[in-house]
Amino acid sequence: MRKELRGEERYSEIGRVECEQISALPGVLDDISLSGCKVHFPFPANVDKENEYTIFIQLSRADFPDKLQLLCCPQWTFENEDECQTEIGFSFLRSPDSPELARFIESLKNKNDPDDITSLIIEDDTDFI
After folding, report:
1. What is the tally of structural domains in the chain?
2. CATH number, domain with residue 44
3. For residues 87 and 115, what is the distance between their CA atoms, to the nearest angstrom?
4. pTM for this one?
5. Contact by Cβ (8 Å): 66, 59
């Protein structure tokens, strides 16, 4: 597997992505950074790389309840015919919710900070007994 060269660190995050220009059904957020994100739609989708799209990202975190409205350009697409899905890599343009995105990325960065001892004391994952 080749190493991807990225300008910004990517964070694995799950969320719902809506874009009426691409599909009436939502896609799934795979990862996100300050400069872009990777999304997959569980069905074939047509994307024009020359167009700009407005996407709405509903994050799965309670501390970010609102949808992020982001203007973006597709950088690449991959249609996986075996799984009947389309993966899209978007780069973000200056958007109304760019400050909220920056705040969200900062919270992810702090969560992964090795100097932050709260992750050693408080566990994020839930165990069912």
Report:
1. 1
2. 2.40.10.220
3. 34
4. 0.78
5. no
